[in-house]
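RECORD TYPE: inverse folding
INPUT: structure tokens
STRUCTURE:
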């Protein structure tokens, strides 16, 4: 008789006590699927090797359970960022402050006054919750929050410049990571792209001439992830604003990173801030919530009230609006700035402002704890489409552990995966981007990933 017929049926297995346990834990449909898959696997294995013993029920259930946990393991899981890249786009950009997460949880768990005016008992606007904070913080007339900065730019252009000429410098027609190409977004919005200047140089007169040719708007884009050096020229934003306003044109600034604090304070190059852009005369500024702002993924459009009204009335505004969880989180993050506690409370600013001495002490403590590795000077970067080419001094733990790529891979396979980088066959771990409450897991993971001597 074929050994296949000795395999228990799904029905029979479902009657056993242990399967009852699996059903309670994982639900019946998923458990049945897992049993089926397991039995199918055994059937093909027994066909391929007819001399093999038919598995006992406990072995079948063990394999069933491992399928179940594999299926249920979240695909999106936390990792430890030991790369030293603070706004690592592949690793989810900005980690959030405790207060931000608490606010998001409060908004998520229950009902809220999202679009309900508690004073009048009538319908309210979801825009008000974050707008008043942005008005205070930026001294701006109005603001609206959307899904991300890519949609902020698309929406702003769609609402303000359909069929209008939008004048932009060739040196600012950039592609941001993930295929966001400024010229494509401009075309998609219905704006007529008018390029001025050359790759390296653009003058006020170039803008002036193009803006005067017909109903136009001026667009300024932060180059974000690259630098032009050498023989270059660009007018000051303030002068472009004056020129645009002189011709009754609006100036739209896509700032990208959305810094609210001055990065030069931390030994970095100057990243244009939202406040500076508004002071320079931008009518509309667009920036990200999860870059240098350090909050949840969002796009913020701030500027003149009349223009923001136009933007919020555009049909696309409904399509890209921010959800209640984002709005709650963003409000909590903005509050840190208003309270002048961003450096203490917002994780990316804690990382940027972390004294070099502290970084070194942490790396040394890791080396001591592990009993191996050496501490060496290296560079952290801010990342996330800000401060291109800029690095910050740091200290890293350097580990030599056979083949560096294989060691990196084992680090990624830990239950809390560790992402690091290599240099000269050594694995480097930068304390700057490792969250303090992940340190114990980091050391455990490194120990588990070390090749046995
Ligand atoms: C990052 C960036 C964007 C896209 O922002 P997201 O929030 O990632 O959608 C757009 N423009 C500039 C200049 C950027 O730096």
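DESIGNED SEQUENCE:
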């Amino acid at each position: 008789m074929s050994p296949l017929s000795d395999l228990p049926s799904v029905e029979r297995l479902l009657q056993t006590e242990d399967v009852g346990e699996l059903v309670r834990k994982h639900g019946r449909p998923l458990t049945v699927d897992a049993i089926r898959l397991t039995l199918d696997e055994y059937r093909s294995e027994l066909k391929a090797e007819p001399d093999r013993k038919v598995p006992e029920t406990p072995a079948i259930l063990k394999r069933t359970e491992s399928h179940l946990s594999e299926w249920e393991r979240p695909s999106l899981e936390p990792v430890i960022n030991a790369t030293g890249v603070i706004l690592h786009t592949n690793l989810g950009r900005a980690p959030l402050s405790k207060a931000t997460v608490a606010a998001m949880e409060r908004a998520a768990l229950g009902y809220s006054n999202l679009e309900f005016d508690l004073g009048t008992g009538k319908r309210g606007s979801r825009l008000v919750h974050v707008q008043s904070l942005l008005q205070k913080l930026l001294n701006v007339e109005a603001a609206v929050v959307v899904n991300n900065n890519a949609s902020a730019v698309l929406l702003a252009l769609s609402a303000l410049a359909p069929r209008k000429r939008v004048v932009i410098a060739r040196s600012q027609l950039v592609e941001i990571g993930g295929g966001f190409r400024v010229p494509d977004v401009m075309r998609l919005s219905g704006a007529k792209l008018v390029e001025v200047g050359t790759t390296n140089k653009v003058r006020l007169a170039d803008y002036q001439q193009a803006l005067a040719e017909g109903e136009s708007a001026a667009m300024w884009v932060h180059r974000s992830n690259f630098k032009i050096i050498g023989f270059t020229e660009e007018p000051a934003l303030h002068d472009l604003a004056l020129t645009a306003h002189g011709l009754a044109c609006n100036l739209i600034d896509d700032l990208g990173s959305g810094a609210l604090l001055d990065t030069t304070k931390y030994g970095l190059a100057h990243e244009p801030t939202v406040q500076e852009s508004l002071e320079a005369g931008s009518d509309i500024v667009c920036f990200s919530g999860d870059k240098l702002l350090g909050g949840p993924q969002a796009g913020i459009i701030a500027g003149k009230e009349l223009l923001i009204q136009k933007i919020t009335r555009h049909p696309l505004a409904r399509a890209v609006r921010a959800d209640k969880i984002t709005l709650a989180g963003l409000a909590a993050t903005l509050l840190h700035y208003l309270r002048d506690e961003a450096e203490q409370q917002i994780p990316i600013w804690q990382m940027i402002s972390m004294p070099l001495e502290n970084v070194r002490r942490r790396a040394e403590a890791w080396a001591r704890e592990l009993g191996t590795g050496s501490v060496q000077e290296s560079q952290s970067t801010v990342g996330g489409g800000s401060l291109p080419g800029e690095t910050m001094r740091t200290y890293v733990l350097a580990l030599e552990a056979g083949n560096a790529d294989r060691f990196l891979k084992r680090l990624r396979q830990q239950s809390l995966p560790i992402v690091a980088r290599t240099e000269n066959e050594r694995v480097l771990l930068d304390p700057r981007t490792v969250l303090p409450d992940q340190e114990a897991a980091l050391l455990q993971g490194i120990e588990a990933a070390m090749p046995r001597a």
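NOTES: The two ends are 50 Å apart (CA to CA).
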